[in-house]
Amino acid sequence: MRRFKRVVYPLALAYMLVLAACQRGAVDESAPQAARETFSQWVMSANASSEYSYPDWASQRVTGAPDVNACADDSRAWASARGNGTEWLLLEYRVAVFATQINIYQTYGRGAVSRITVYGTDDNSEVVWEGEDSTSPCPGILSVPVPEQLYRIFSVRIDLDESRTHYWNQIDSVELVGYR
Asked: What's the chain look like in SS3?
């Protein structure tokens, strides 16, 4: 009986879901086949071109939800070693999604983000934003809409040019929003 439940119940559920989809009408083949429910997640792991120190201001400070609420030099956010050159953060997320938005939580010295690149599960990559970061107030969120992708995103690279601000740009967290 247990084997029957493990095999037949999932098949019956799958059949009912297919039947319900057919009754709603045709499926748009160009749209991702996953449910169009918004999914938001925080960084699972991070690496950086440099770190001011460890464990304070280290790249791993970018993981998880934001925890810095003030515009201040705070060791709970990532900061580069020099604060006056080009730097990068490479972030990975637990669930690959069809991305719609990237939110960068900056806590101090914002304005240095220069490029955002996304990486997909099929070795695809694409620059989704490049320009002048005008994030304000402090702390602030640089929200970047992501053009519709035909592949799921699991990693984000943020390039910074701190020579623009002549100071450290501290990043507390980066949220990836999309559909599964």
From this structure: CHHHHHHHHHHHHHHHHHHHHHHHCCCCCCCCCCCCCEEEEECCEEEECCCCCCCCCCHHHHCCCCCCCCCCCCCCCECCCCCCCEEEEEEEEEEEEEEEEEEEEEEECCCCEEEEEEEECCCCEEEEEECCCCCCCCCEEEEEECCCCCCCEEEEEEEEECCCCCCCCEEEEEEEEEEC
Range of the domain at 60: 38-179
Per-residue pLDDT of the chain (180 residues; tens, 9 = 90+): 454 445 444 554 444 444 444 443 333 444 455 457 899 999 999 999 999 999 999 999 999 999 999 988 999 999 999 989 999 999 999 999 999 999 999 998 878 999 999 999 988 999 999 998 886 778 889 999 999 888 999 999 999 999 998 889 999 999 999 998
| 129 located within any domain | yes
- Number of domains, the chain: 1
Instruction: Give the domain CATH number at 129.
Output: 2.60.120.260
